[in-house]
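F.,

This is the one I mentioned.
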């Protein structure tokens, strides 16, 4: 049985998609999958399913949802598959890492980040792209649209953004600034206050011969930081602006942004 949470919640058995009945059953499974192979306290599940005001029958309704989920898991009949255990102070869903897209994503993202740190940029780019290809939309988007407002959803959204930025860094180091420029522009527009993606967009634009637009990107992020957070750009982003203004040769280096950031730190 395969589980997907990086997008709408999906369960697939040997014979295709597995139907889940009711929002509470889906929400309970979603919460357990976000913490696969960990004990999730009953109190945590109650908050996830009903917020801060669960009805008097909430525990019984949760027990019914868990019982139904056990029936779904057992119906696959493949043997050695996922198991939903009662484990004080709540429940534990035991899932093989190969059967959950979230686990696969984290493994690939960590591997890609390690390759990036080691300067193995082509390998990092391939691995990070494979990690991002597992996403089919915002995490558990169907549950979010039904009212789920869990901190895990925001945490994973931030993790996806960081992985995307790791990928852009690897692609820039490989000299693929033309290839990723459109994606960089889109994501910088979506998240104008993210300084790292602004620096990456500035570098890509500069390498494409568009210095003025690179400086314009800096200006937009500076405005977004000031209006949203009351902040000025950090030392690293300001150093990129200075390098673009000066046509600094370092901008042609594969790991230009890392060099600029390190140089900025040594001058502190």
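My design for it:
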């Amino acid at each position: 049985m395969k589980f997907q949470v990086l997008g709408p919640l999906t369960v697939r058995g040997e014979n295709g998609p597995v139907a889940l009945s009711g929002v509470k059953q889906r929400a309970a499974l979603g919460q357990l999958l976000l913490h696969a192979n960990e004990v999730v306290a009953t109190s945590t599940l109650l908050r996830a399913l009903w917020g801060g005001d669960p009805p008097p029958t909430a525990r019984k309704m949760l027990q019914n949802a868990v019982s139904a989920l056990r029936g779904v898991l057992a119906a696959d009949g493949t043997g050695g598959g996922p198991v939903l255990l009662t484990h004080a102070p709540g429940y534990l869903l035991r899932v093989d890492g190969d059967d959950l897209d979230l686990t696969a994503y984290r493994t690939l993202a960590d591997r890609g980040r390690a390759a990036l740190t080691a300067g193995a940029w082509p390998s990092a780019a391939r691995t990070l792209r494979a990690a991002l290809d597992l996403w089919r939309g915002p995490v558990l988007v169907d549950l979010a649209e039904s009212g789920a407002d869990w901190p895990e959803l925001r945490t994973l959204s931030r993790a996806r953004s960081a992985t995307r930025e790791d990928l852009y860094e690897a692609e820039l180091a490989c000299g693929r600034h033309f290839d990723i420029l459109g994606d960089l522009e889109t994501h910088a527009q979506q998240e104008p206050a993210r300084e790292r993606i602004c620096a990456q967009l500035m570098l890509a634009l500069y390498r494409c011969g568009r210095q003025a637009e690179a400086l314009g990107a800096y200006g937009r992020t500076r405005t977004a930081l000031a209006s949203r957070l009351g902040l000025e750009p950090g030392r690293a982003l300001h150093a990129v602006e200075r390098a673009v203004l000066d046509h600094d040769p370092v901008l042609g280096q594969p790991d230009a942004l890392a060099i600029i950031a390190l140089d900025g730190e040594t001058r502190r």
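The beta strands are 2-4, 10-13, 16-17, 39-41, 83-87, 90-94.

Talk soon.
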